[in-house]
């Protein structure tokens, strides 16, 4: 019995994970709180530094009662942002104004652009080697803004900056599973492009198990995936946007980064990153992750004719969204 326990301990030690510090900026918000709860459960996180402008101490006190090995720390206000980010291996940013009924993602830029700029400046000063996962909308424009801020400070590494588009993949898997009457956990489908409207392109031709429906029914499914955010905003009737599903999706993406940091091979996730795959400077595709972020951009999977036409259209929209970032920084 004793020798068996020793063997179990030895096997556990060989499989032990490298635990790192993760910072969440905007941790008291509708996405930040459930995201922080999910991250608190990860054995690959040693310290969870939670920052917000207010109301964060109660969140941290609450989370600190959960019996996992992850230590949680509270940081309040602009002056404590630097302390929150010190030594962080991953910085996750859900901070910003949520979308409300009648708003599109572009409407958020005035407020959320300033948030992204301040966070990017602090990252550049405190932890430029961190992997950065931005959730703040509009992602199509926010990521180019952050990239430019980092470039101006000579710390930009395109392999370390990610726009989190995992929610589009989560929704695609869920909606395809509903159509096929199967478990969504068995569905694999890449979602490329961006993170708003027609820039979201689920590649149904690459879906596993096969999705063979064509015509109006297929178009309806694609449209639902693209407009799923509106579905939630309208259902909440002004009380918020997609928070729980976004937190779930973001936690899945952070888990991918953590597994890659730990040296796990073949960790693949779709993300909006600087890219040479299309004419758009930033584009979401499947990414092979490594300890330093992007190990390889896997590019565009094989597309059918309908998807090729959709890419041509969405690239034009992405270019406009990216240009909005440059205009914002010149204001």
UniProtKB/TrEMBL annotation:
Family matches, as CDD domains: MDH_glyoxysomal_mitochondrial
GO cellular component terms given for this protein: mitochondrion
GO MF terms, alphabetically ordered: L-malate dehydrogenase (NAD+) activity
Domain Lactate/malate dehydrogenase C-terminal: 165-328
Record InterPro entries: L-lactate/malate_DH, Lactate/malate_DH_C, Lactate/malate_DH_N, Lactate_DH/Glyco_Ohase_4_C, Malate_DH_AS, Malate_DH_type1, NAD(P)-bd_dom_sf
Family label: Belongs to the LDH/MDH superfamily. MDH type 1 family.
Keywords attached to this entry: NAD, Oxidoreductase, Tricarboxylic acid cycle
Amino-acid positions noted as binding NAD(+) in the UniProt annotation, renumbered to this chain: 26-32, 52, 112, 135-137, 246
Name by which UniProt lists this protein: Malate dehydrogenase
Protein's UniProt keywords contain NAD: yes
Pfam families in the cross-refs: Ldh_1_C, Ldh_1_N
Record text on subunit structure and interactions: Homodimer.
Reaction equations catalysed: (S)-malate + NAD(+) = oxaloacetate + NADH + H(+)
EC number(s) reported in the record: 1.1.1.37
GO biological process: malate metabolic process; tricarboxylic acid cycle
Organism: Drosophila grimshawi (Hawaiian fruit fly)
Superkingdom assignment: Eukaryota
Binding annotation for substrate: 99, 105, 137, 171
């Amino acid at each position: 019995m004793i020798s068996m326990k020793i063997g179990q301990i030895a096997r556990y030690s060989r499989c032990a994970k490298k635990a790192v510090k993760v910072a969440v900026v905007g941790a008291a918000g509708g996405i930040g709180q459930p995201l922080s709860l999910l991250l608190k459960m990860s054995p690959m996180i040693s310290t969870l530094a939670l920052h917000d402008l207010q109301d964060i101490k109660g969140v941290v006190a609450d989370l600190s009662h959960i019996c996992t090995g992850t230590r949680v720390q509270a940081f309040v206000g602009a002056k404590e942002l630097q302390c929150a980010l010190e030594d962080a291996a991953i910085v996750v940013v859900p901070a910003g104004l949520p979308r409300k009924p009648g708003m599109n993602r572009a409407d958020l830029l005035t407020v959320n652009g300033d948030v992204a700029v301040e966070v990017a400046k602090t990252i550049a000063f405190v932890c430029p080697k961190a992997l950065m996962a931005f959730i703040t909308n509009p992602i199509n424009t926010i990521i180019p803004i952050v990239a430019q801020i980092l470039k101006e400070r000579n710390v930009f590494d395109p392999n370390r900056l990610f726009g989190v588009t995992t929610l589009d993949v989560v929704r695609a898997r869920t909606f395809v599973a509903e159509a096929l009457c199967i478990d969504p956990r068995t569905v694999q489908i890449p979602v490329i492009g961006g993170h708003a409207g027609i820039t979201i392109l689920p590649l149904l031709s690459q879906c596993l198990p096969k999705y063979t429906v064509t015509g109006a029914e297929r178009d309806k499914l694609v449209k639902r995936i693209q407009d799923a955010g509106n579905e939630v905003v309208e259902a909440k009737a002004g009380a918020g946007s997609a928070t729980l599903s976004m937190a779930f999706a973001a936690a899945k993406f952070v888990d991918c980064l953590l597994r890659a940091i730990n040296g796990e091979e073949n960790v693949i996730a779709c993300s909006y990153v600087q890219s040479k795959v299309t004419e758009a400077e930033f584009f979401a595709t499947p990414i092979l992750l490594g300890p330093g972020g992007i190990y390889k951009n896997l590019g565009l999977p094989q597309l059918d004719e309908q998807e090729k036409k959709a890419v041509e259209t969405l690239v034009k929209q992405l270019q406009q969204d990216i240009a909005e970032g440059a205009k914002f920084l010149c204001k």
